[in-house]
Amino acid sequence: MAKHAISPTRSEDYPEWYQQVVRAGELAESSPVRGCMVIKPHGFALWEQMQGILDGMFKATGHRNAYFPLFIPLSYLEQEAKHVEGFAKECAVVTHHRLELNAEGRLIPTGKLEEPLVVRPTSETIIGAMYAKWIQSWRDLPVLINQWANVVRWEMRPRVFLRTAEFLWQEGHTAHATEAEAVEETLRMLDIYATFAERDLAMPVWKGPKPASERFPGAVDTYSIEAMMQDGKALQAGTSHFLGQNFARAQQISFADAEGGESFCWTTSWGVSTRLIGGLIMTHADDDGLVLPPRVAPEQIVLLPIFRSDDDRAAVMACCESLKAKLEDCRWRNEPLRVRIDARDIRGGDKVWQHIKQGVPLRVEIGPRDLAAGAVSLTRRDASPKDRQSLPLETFVAEAANLLEDVQQQLLSRAVAFREAHSACLNSQAEIHEAFADTGTIGFAHVHVADDPAVAAALDPLKVTVRCTPMDWEDEPGTCLFTGQKVARRSVIARSY
Amino acid sequence: MAKHAISPTRSEDYPEWYQQVVRAGELAESSPVRGCMVIKPHGFALWEQMQGILDGMFKATGHRNAYFPLFIPLSYLEQEAKHVEGFAKECAVVTHHRLELNAEGRLIPTGKLEEPLVVRPTSETIIGAMYAKWIQSWRDLPVLINQWANVVRWEMRPRVFLRTAEFLWQEGHTAHATEAEAVEETLRMLDIYATFAERDLAMPVWKGPKPASERFPGAVDTYSIEAMMQDGKALQAGTSHFLGQNFARAQQISFADAEGGESFCWTTSWGVSTRLIGGLIMTHADDDGLVLPPRVAPEQIVLLPIFRSDDDRAAVMACCESLKAKLEDCRWRNEPLRVRIDARDIRGGDKVWQHIKQGVPLRVEIGPRDLAAGAVSLTRRDASPKDRQSLPLETFVAEAANLLEDVQQQLLSRAVAFREAHSACLNSQAEIHEAFADTGTIGFAHVHVADDPAVAAALDPLKVTVRCTPMDWEDEPGTCLFTGQKVARRSVIARSY
Question: Which of B92, B105, B346 has the CB atom closest to A94's CB atom?
């Protein structure tokens, strides 16, 4: 049996495998603060790549970034009735604003606040309060603002990247003059998330509306992108909410229209978070650790010089430096390649395995023999560590961008094939029960279900939920398997994170 | 008397002028949460420019970004004795982790935490706790990590950008094997801040060590950069701390050295914040509003099409689009120019004044007459709004980068000249008393003072402090005007923000 860098393997213990991949990949670890993670440099560099691409897509569609307060007065959360019900659960509450040192050298909270402050779990209410001030007339619309921020939702069962008390995210908040424009915006951002997931994360997703039971508190419609993890479970990887006039009415966000009347705005909000990193891991990582899609890999190519003598060292390092410069002159998807030379003085095997576990797409070894032959030894992270090929150096330079594109496409097709292999159309309650009775026989079931609480109730014992009703699927009229209502197309049901 | 866009003017009421510049420039405003500001899109875009440059400088010197928890357990703050004394004052304290809705629809904090959590005022203690785990051997050193984050220090008298309860900043935290390396790092980062301030913000600064009374709580040495605002006051615009082994000892951050012994690390921390935006404003803004140095201006050039008829509109807009493309192909300081066409349908005068108040470095008006002449009408923000010049379009394209460089240099030399004009060498207590007795006669006094609490005590009635002892100044041995001790060179004393 082959030995693997990650123990346990996926088939031995999937949840523990995930934790070990995160650890071995040096992405993050838990902190002394319950439920809060530390994002380590390699994990943060990955997040920076993702941020950079998304930020560019937001700006290209007319959005601007801004920053709103971390704290929300309790009374603001109370304004929108459904919102408060949905979020009135697990929040960090600031009640004091001062510390005093007592005689024993211990710090004691003092300076009690008149009104407690909640550390934002999401910012609709505080941002809405500002929009109510900023928006006066139709000329002020649309308002298209995004915020990159930390948010806190106290979690009883934290899990790194997937569910942590504090996490990083972006939250877009927009206000529009008409319902049609707000719906268009909601779907535009959903499309951006889906494009980003598939094109950049190589993570195929189904996008569509969620049932009422799964809506964001206070939203009229919630749309999500849903990805399949390697254990068959669904991960909600991003959401876009059409808020109708609910928040605008609660917060008095109104405008004078061109005819002189006063109307409430139509608002949206949409977000993705560091949870995407969890999704990336569980889509691509294998029993040797992380596998990063080149598009978001902080280092796309690592050059590993090999030498014993000082003479060799000089020649090999010179070759690496020159190769790095040549590669950085190449462009892939309009950007220079990201290349690192790892000349650290540690055992070659340890070094190679570190890059495997960190998921670097292409590893290139260069020793005196390669130098003499004018060649490099290339290994792709999406292939076996033993699948090494020798390439003329100039060929490698000429092909590097294509190789990255090929790894990227390979990861996407694998993930699509995996999803295909673990999805099925089911047409009766019995089939659903059978499919989800044992673990692992099915990931996504495509079924006809109505948007009805009875469906959620019927699926609950199976620990299954309706994830979304994919908009890209063909219409296929049918009858809800649980309520008998007519529905226009199938939905995805699955277990989920 | 000339009319100005900002009322009151600087000479009429400087503090209120500052608030009005921030408002008219649409940079930020206060929020419903006491002491917390909202950074509006234009202000945030400015911060993004500053972040981008600094982040590049940090990475070029081997630092990597990471992210640590927002919350710090109370007991962590208690670990370093001087640190806790210095920071045990105004912090936001989280005491509960749940909200419950009572019968009246009000939210009530429940779920009391066993140990209260402090919203980070700075992160030495929580980051140190992680470093103690990560660092085992000399091979793990140095650790060079930076974090971009929000921090909270409850402020009784908040002032937008300068002193707010929540602000954005970066905090670098490094650990080293030797004292010499840590001191070198401390000074390297101080240099980076000084370079950034002068080269990019066109804000001249004095850099040097602060007296013991002004040190960061727990530091061995604190160095700062100090800039002069237009009211003559000093603004501490960045700090770099050599922490010695104080935090390492308190937190057990130790390593096995190459000889097998166990030593405590030598650590540093350094930071700049959104306060820099306040400094930028008070260095360059005038009675018409913001004046942005081109290097950090989100928009360096705004093109203002002028037309009455639809025919004119088509021709003028085509010219603007083509000009924008040409300008974006130019490079200034290795980056493409940032150009916006403002074709909004609002009164031309209002539009021009909005860009003046937002500080855009170059305004270019293009109307049918310019078009016919193949020319553009150029106005520089660092000149009078009436100083308009007509330039052949191609000349403008060829000169655009030079014009930006010229504005940048002009702002720097103006600021240097202002500082020069408001600084003086003083050589007696009497001169100091006279200089600071009235407001406005002097900004910075260069004086011989010892690093002694008696100096702070003597200056306190004048509301003056020792800002720093500039390292770039020539040695000029003298005698402390207050204690008679011998000192090697002069220090800067001033009133300050």
Answer: B92
